[in-house]
Structure formats: C-alpha cells, structure tokens
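Note to self: the last two entries modelled the partners one at a time, which told us nothing about the interface. This time every component goes in together.
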Amino acid sequence: MNTEALAATANSPRYAGRRRRNTIAKVLALAATIFGLGWLVLILGILVYKGIGGLSLSVFTEMTPPPGSAGGLLNAIAGSLIMTVLAVLIGTPIGILAGTYLAEYGRHDRLSSVVRFINDILLSAPSIVIGLFIYEIMVAPMGHFSGWAGAVALAVIVIPVVVRTTEDMLTLVPDTLREAAASIGLPRAHMIFSIAYRAAKAGIVTGVLLAVARISGETAPLLFTALNNQFWSVNMNAPMPSLPVVIFQFALSPYEEWQKLAWTGALLITVTVLALSIVARSLTSARKSS
Amino acid sequence: MSEVVLNGASVSAAEAASRSTVLRRLRLTDLIFHGLTRTAALLVLALLSGVIIALVIGAAPAMGTFGFSFLFDQSWNPVTEKFGALAPIYGTLVTSAIAMLIAVPVGLMVAFFLTELCPMVLRRPIGIAIELLAGIPSIIYGIWGLFVFAPFLQRYIQPFLIDAFSGVPILSTLFEGPPYGIGMLTAGLILAIMVLPFVTSISRDVFEAVPPVLKEAAYGVGCTTWEVFRYVVLPFTRVGVIGGFMLGLGRALGETMAVTFVIGNAHHVSASLFAPGTTISASIANEFTEAVGDLYTSSLIALGLILFFITFCVLAMARYMLMRIQKRVG
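The predicted structure of the combined assembly is written out below.
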C-alpha cells in the first residue's frame, strides 16, 4: 500500500470534515445521554430527599389526617393493597387464558391477529379513558363510587400486560416439547398445563409482577371509580382510599403536613415499583441463563 | 371408537370401554379449555368495543346538544352549560408537540450512544436504568414538576426567555406574559422527560436489530461511526423508529397525572406557551368528580372519546409500523 497516498487522504479537507462531523455527533450523543439520565437521577434524588424526612412508623400506623395535623397513610396503603390484589385476581386468569389462546390454540388464525392488535392498543390506551369506561358501566348504574369499581378499572389495565407477556413467554417454549407431548397422545390442554406452563412459569410470573408494578402507581383510573376516603374502610361497596389518589389530593393542597405526606407516599410508590420491576427482571434473566 | 388395539393384540371389551371413557374425558377437558381460552381472547376484543360503546353513549347528550361545533368552540362554562373542546384539544396537541420536539432528538442520540459508542460494560446497566425509569408512575413526575420544576422555571428560565425574545416577532408571542411557573411549556417539558425513556428504549431495540453485516460492510468501505448510523442504521430502521415515536406520542397525548399538576387548568386558547392551559386528560381528572348536571359530565366524557379516538389512530399507526419492521428483520 502506498503510504504517501494514505497520508494524503487522511489529511484531505474532505476527510477532515467527515472526521469533524463524526466527533461532533459523538459528543452530542454523549451529551444527550448525560442530559437524559441527569434529569432522571435528579428526579429520583429529590424524591428521596423530600420523602425520606417524613418516613416514620406513624406513616404505616395512622390514618390520613385532617388538614393541619399530623398523621399517616395507613388507610391509603391498605386501600391500594386491597384493590391491587383484587385487580390481579380478576385480571390475571383472563390475561393468561387469552395469552394461551394466542400462543397455543390460535397462533396463526385471524382472530388471534386481531386480538393481538387490539391488545397492543389497550396496552397503551390512556388510563383515564379506562376510568371513564368503568364509571359508565359500574359507578353510574350503581349510583355510587366503590372499591369494586376501582379494582375492576385496575384489572382492565392488568389484562393486556398479562396477555402480552404470557403469549411472548409461551412462544419461547420450543415446539419440540409440544411435538413430543403430542406424539405420546397427550391432548393439547394437558400438554399446555403440564409442559408449556411449566416451561414458561418464570416468564408468566414476570408478566404478573410487571402488571402489579404498572397498576400500583396508576392514579387516573381511580379518580372517579374508587374516589377517595379519609377514613379506614375495607368496604368494597364504598369509596376507597388509595395511595396515588391521596398523593394527588395532598400534593395540590395548601397544607404543609399534607404535602409532606404526599412526598413520602410518592417515595413509597416509587420504591415499590422499582423493587417489583427489578425482581421481575431478575426472574427472567435467571431463566435465560440457566 | 369401539375397539382399542394395542401392540397388535386386541384387549378385552371392559378394558376398551374404560380406555374410551378416559379418552373421552381427555377430549372433553381439551374442548372446555379451548373454549375458555377462546372466550378470554374474545373478552379482550369485547373490552375495547365496550370502551368505545360506553364512551359514545356517555358522550351522546353533549354531542347531540353541541354537534360538531363542540370541536371548535373554546367556551367552557358550567354555569350557562356551554361547553367546547377546542382549548383542551389545543393544549393536548401543543404539550405533546413540545414533548416530542425535545424527546425525539435526545432519545435518538441516547440510543445512538447506547448501541454504537457506549463501552460494553456500561451498556447493560444504562439500558436497564432507562427501562426502569420508563416504569416510574407518572404521578411522581407530576409532584416533582409542581414542587421543584415549576418554581425553578418561574424563577430562572421564564424571566430569561421573556427578556431574551421580547423584541423578536413570533417568539415574543410564544414567550409572553407573566412567569407563572405552571403552564403549557412546563407541562410539555415534563412530558418530554417522561417520554424520553420510551423513545430511547424502543429506538435502541430497533437499532440493535440491524444485521451486523450491514454495519460491518459500511465500516469496511471506510465510513465513520456517525456515517454508519446516519446512512445505514437509520434508513434501515426508519419505519421502526417512527413507530417508536408514535408510541411515545400516544403516551404523551394520553398522559394525565404528570400534566394535571402543572398545566393550570384554564380553558382558553393562548398563543403564549407560558399561559396556563388545559389538556383533555387534565380537564377530565380535575373536573369529572365535581361536574354537576348531565351535560357537564357528558361533555367531559365526549372529551374522553376524542382523546381515545386520537390515541387510537396514533397507536394503531405505531403498531402497524413496528409490525412491518419486525417482519423485515425476522
């Protein structure tokens, strides 16, 4: 190779310009990354800073206070837990069954491709619209806000998440396993229960955990389904408090104690959501590496 | 099945009968399970149609009273029961536009960094961090925006912008009026921060799907890293990247809590980005429980229907585009 020619190319203004553009782009990319991650670090940092001060035992043992006095978030935490558990109990079986249909029975039929498409739309539909839907079909006919309406609204958000992950995880199960089961004469339902579900167990659990993470911070669908309640209430037919709605109400209030509790509640939710997503993630990555 | 043949030898009638009952039971459970899963799949369809039907029925009184002028009227007066959706629609579109204007270029550059430049050791941690951040509930962004970001903007950024652009023709209208802190710009910026992780993680996934051979060939003929990204990776993934943006846009349009805290909830259309405004989701969140009278409630549900229609179109387009890129890659 002619080294002189190479050196000439390396020094040509055209090549210098290309190199300069390359450097500028790289610097911009680095700057964008620092900028993007910086905001997010800042948000989490301030959340911990503002929330940790209010974190004490009374948060978990006392009810939400009237304006101007101290208190805790016990009833809101309990309400959130109850509605989340119920939403998962309602939404998960439906989601797993529908996901099973998409992956096992109707992998290639028309119904499945339509359901897949609709499910993806539901997955990112605005949650406030889900709230309006449940208001129309449950709150308005029943004449009052209720914990049930809140739980069903959350269940509607759980279903698409579980459908999606169940289908994805079942599709990952090798077809040779299914064929082996079919060759010894096992009907499909039995194959699904004793082989496909077992092989995809960790993935399906991940989906459910992700769904829980998703609904534990949802505020919009609860605003006019479960409403809120300042007192201890486990009556599913009455308005029920929840952590996100209490945060919404307290943060917008002019009272300092309420605002402080809102920050603490926000910290609690964020820690829960992050913990759930990390556990979910480690479940699938453990499965992949094994 | 009257006779079961095993290993070429026929078995007794009693054994055959018990076998066929077992077989029948197996087939029955399979049928039932098949039916159950199919019902669940149909239920997903029913959910979406249910949402549409419920919203249309709920919105009917308002639509019947105001007709199409509902879309172009900016009055919002609960006392005289005169409602129009122009201000919320305008606010939704403007805040989402601000969000996408910022989140798209930044997100693309972050994805470029993550797939082409970032040292291997850091790729996984940063990728995971971004995905975790995408999962943070929007109310957290809202409370942060209200107590931290809005005061900061009010004290430092907005006065600066007002001074800087006071003589410039168009920009002075955009950055006009007293610095409240809350308003359309603040809401748009918070949406941008929220949408950024979505845009980034989808673009990264799409970029990673580019066959290495293509990139290697480009490097082989002497392209720089930026040229490989600009002329090979981006054109190859264009459809998927646009799909990812649409998905982000769908998020931004329908986002409620992050916006409700900082938008100011004022039902008027203002050219200034500093002015308080409202979005569809913020109006519903703020007013729905306080709405008295059927027409008021119905107008809010009509707003919800409009929002659902807009996001449905955007999301359907996004999914279609992402589906196309998936087909092409694998």
